[in-house]
Amino acid sequence: MKPRVVPFGESALLVELGDEFQENIVGWARAIADRWETTAGFGPAVPAYASALLRFDPLKTAPAEAEKVADAMLARGQFMPTLGNEPRRLVEIPTTYDGPDLAETAERSHLSVEELIALHAEREYTAYFLGFLPGTAYCGRLDPRIVAPRLERPRERVPAGSVAIADGQTIVYPLASPGGWRLIGRTALSMFDPGADDPVRIRAGDRVRFVPL
Amino acid sequence: MIRISEAAVRSTVQDRGRFGHLRSGVPPAGAADPFALAAANALVGNTDDAAGIEIIGTTFRFSCDDARLVAVTGRDVSLTTRSRLPGWSSVFVRAGQPVTVHAGERTRFAYLAVSGGIATAPVLGSRATYLPADIGAPLRAGDALPLGDADAGAEDAARRAGATVYDGHVRAMAGPHSDRFDTDATRRFFSATFVVEAASDRQGTRLGGVPIAPRAGELLSCGVVAGAVQVPRGGAPIVLLSDHQTTGGYPVIATVIAADLGKVAQSLPGEPLRFYRVERDEALEALRAERRALDGARASA
């Protein structure tokens, strides 16, 4: 798929960078979102795996003008650096590995529970982007030996702090919510605090490590 | 202060939404029917970013500690002071005078604006309530909320704003994922009559009646906006509303224009909804028309 800019209603554009998940594309999407917010200043942006949603107020910024700016960003290519060169933070998540899907997930991966825990905890992950619910950071990649599709029947209620895996990635559920990922553990760490200036524990681009308790 | 003596089934403080933390996964929230809140604010002389109260169900009753202009908007709404007054107009109420907001049979969301605006402390840059993350809380009988300073006075009462015609005719732009649907599915989407399902809420309006299947294949999650019409694998579309998740992994066949979001939000379970394809110019013209209507209704504060 050729990278492109498409309208998303009259008040947003969607920059589509590809249809496959690749780590370098995630960084590109974030760089475009950063530049949209800081350089263009037309409105907020939402980066994801291989896209960036760019919002603007069409009564203040003509859509054609917004498109021109987005096209120009895209034309700079994939090696546009992310803004700010501060070292990536490391966030450690103390984790009790006792989730209800732990045994079944280990079994389908032909691993013992101990092996699965070791594989999950030994890697340092990258937080790709945040979405779903406030503070939910999509982190990857899991060791390919952990085979974990989403549950066929999502749970109606997953407790806040649940550490979960699916499709090669891992997340912490920040709030109690419905959810279809496999629950392998839990953390007492709060992932979202609306009263704080920076309300989220994990930010996009952070390094993330799960520390077994 | 505004003092609430009855809080209906659910009532929450809402403004135009919280757009500064979408990247942290924080949904915009804000009024489900944005134009209705904007009109209520305009009628009492508030700015567009003032907060009001979104009311679900009946009965909502309140008084204010000092004289204020109030307005109620939404679908099929009215209010009572000493006499019954229509919605979509401004009313002057004296200190301590009890006011009742009436929801009709077709009301899903009613909006109350008070001159000066609800002045609760903003959280992450907005007063919008988002209950799943405990940002704000449902209002209860006995609650008293601070109000901002108001300039509008009795001479500004009896202003009127044209009410939205909640007729289930909704304009939408195609895409952004048009190529995930074959032309037949897109044609069906823009010609079918859908039926609103009971499971609809502030997160989204769920539609049944006509399944619209997307093409096979995975879609990577991407950022989404209110008005996006997502089509999950089962083919029953969901129109995202103000409490929507910031990213979604279902293909979006069309996006409801901003000016018609309220028509979707206010539709009741069992009611029909139809989508009419428009281009961006028409969506913009509809927004400009809204702006003119709000300017015309604005009290001369």
Explain this structure.
- The complex is a heterodimer of chains A (213) and B (301).
- Chain A is 23% helix and 28% strand.
- By secondary structure, chain A is α+β, with helices and mostly antiparallel strands.
- Chain A folds into two domains: 4-75, Gyrase A, domain 2, CATH 3.30.1360.40; 90-212, Beta Barrel (Cyclophilin), CATH 2.40.100.10.
- In chain A, the strands form three sheets. In chain A, strands 5-13-6-7-10-9-12 form a seven-stranded mixed beta sheet. Chain A has a four-stranded antiparallel beta sheet with strand order 1-2-4-3, covered by helices on one side. In chain A, strands 8-11 form a two-stranded antiparallel sheet.
- In chain A, strand 6 (125-130) and strand 7 form a beta hairpin.
- In chain A, helix 1 crosses helix 2.
- The longest helix of chain A has 18 residues, at 23-40.
- The model of chain B has no long low-confidence stretch (mean pLDDT 94).
- In chain B, the strands form four sheets. In chain B, strands 12-19-16-17-14-13-20 form a seven-stranded mixed beta barrel. Chain B has a six-stranded antiparallel beta sheet with strand order 7-6-9-4-1-11, with no helix packed on it. A five-stranded antiparallel beta sheet of chain B has the order 2-3-10-5-8, covered by helices on one side.
- With 301 residues, chain B is of the alpha+beta class.
- Helix content of chain B is 13%, strand content 29%.
- Chain B is built from four helices and 20 strands.
- Chain B has two domains: 2-164, no CATH class; 169-293, Cyclophilin-like (Cyclophilin, Beta Barrel).
- The A-B interface holds A 6-12, 14, 16, 19-21, 33, 43-53, 55, 58-59, 63, 129-136, 174-175, 177, 192, 194-195, 199-200, 203-204 and B 19-27, 123-124, 132-135, 173, 175-176, 219-225, 227-228, 245-247, 252, 255-258, 280, 283-284, 287-288, 291.
